[in-house]
Amino acid sequence: MTIQIRLLPATAATDVATIERITALINEVYETSEKGLWTDGAARTTTREVAELTRAGEIAVATLGEQIVGCVRVQRLEDGSGEFGMLAADPANRGIGIGRDLVRFAEGKCRDDGATVMQLELLVPRTWSHPSKDALAVWYGRIGYRVVRTGTLDEANPALAPLLATPCNFLIYHKDL
Asked: Most buried pick, 58, 65, 99, 106, via CB within 10 A?
């Protein structure tokens, strides 16, 4: 089976099963990849947020057959650059290129929309090493992303900062498209 990637139409925001699947996938992946960074019970996203982002045309999904096995948020920033986030690949299907294909899709969409730079953000603990974050940093570097700035979550999303269980840095990566 081949991985298919498509931007969801705005109308998919009312498809409860699809929105719930995407939300569950993101939360499952981030629960593992950000274990120890957040207080207990903190979730990466909600069905409401995923529906809003879908309505805005910012959610792409990867499918194998009819099953959603990955997703990514793709958006244009105010400065005209592109950005991807909420990248998630189903743990049961890891290693077959879902993440790589989702990133390529996001980069291609932003390039087609006129962006010349792609951005991503990575939350990392300040005082200890997180295996998932270390692996992501290596992977992002291998596919051409470089850290251009280090900030804090307070700057990007002050409402989430109180939910952190440990001090973290917010790494901003860029890649020329």
From this structure: 106
What is the per-residue pLDDT across 45-84, written as a single tens digit (0 to 9) for each? Answer: 999 999 999 999 999 999 999 999 999 999 999 999 999 9
- Burial class of 53 by CB neighbour count within 10 A (0 to 12, 13 to 18, 19+): buried
At the fourth CATH level, the homologous superfamily of domain 3-176 is Gcn5-related N-acetyltransferase (GNAT) (3.40.630.30)
Q: Are 131 and 97 in contact (CB under 8 A)?
A: no
Q: How do residues 87-101 score in pLDDT, each as one tens digit?
A: 999 999 989 999 999
CA angle 137, 119, 125 (to 5 degrees): 40
- Tell me how far CA of residue 100 lies from CA of 44, 94, 96, 132, 159, in angstroms: 21, 11, 9, 16, 30
| 8 A C-beta contact, residue 70 and residue 59 | no
- Domain range list for the chain: 3-176
Q: What is the pTM (predicted TM-score) of this model?
A: 0.95
